[in-house]
Amino acid sequence: MDRQRISRLAHAHHPIAAPLSDGSVARLLDRALAGQEAGRALDLGCGEGAWLLRALAARPAWRAVGVDLDAAALTRARETATALGVERRIGLHHRDARDFTAPEPFDLVLCVGATHAFDGLLPTLAAARELLAPGGRLLVGEGYWEREPSRAALDGLGAAPEDFADLATTTDRVLADGWTPVYGHVSTAREWDDYEFSWTGSLAGWALDHPDHPDAAAAREAADRHRADWLHGYRATLGFVTYLLRRD
């Protein structure tokens, strides 16, 4: 199975591709959209458009653009937008987020759980800077080390120690790059566990429901491998922080 299909199946019951509860998503969006009745939002690595669709449903005068490489996820986003009646206020682009440009800047740029598309946090900040309007806001989610990673944690994530830093150092890097956190959320252990059990459970459940499908065995294997990597590797080691940032 290709990684995009695995991700779609795994996120069937947790459409936000990050360890965030519905309440946390709502609070982050409320702060990101606060004080601005109308505006333009951009999600770099939007997947099925969950962040943008929530924003449009809550703010009738906002418009949005989503960019992603997963054509099937974008199709789902269009279908959901139509069901919500917001399809005329969203544009979806099937392309690499690193290559995306726009004639006008955006009031809000989002990249939550997708900084790997830019090879890390600082390149993501640089890309967002070019697309953000003066006074605009950036909502970005990134991993960090809650403790020194073990070899099992690194192997489970396919990561190197330098891929992340601790929360203080990560925040210092954001500040040094000219951004100011005006809000933020550190995902809780409960949010992480819910996310991982939902991810692996949705994928394994699909395999059980479709035993004769050619991809069933691969889906079950991916779910079992991911669960083991998490429980025996990076659980309580990898954290996740979502910043709401403004430029100085």
TrEMBL record:
The keyword Membrane does not apply. Residues 42-136 form the Methyltransferase domain. It holds the Pfam family Methyltransf_25. InterPro entries: CFA/CMAS, Methyltransf_25, SAM-dependent_MTases_sf. GO terms for molecular function: methyltransferase activity. This is SAM-dependent methyltransferase. It comes from Kitasatospora aureofaciens. Keywords: Methyltransferase, Transferase. Gene3D superfamilies: Vaccinia Virus protein VP39.
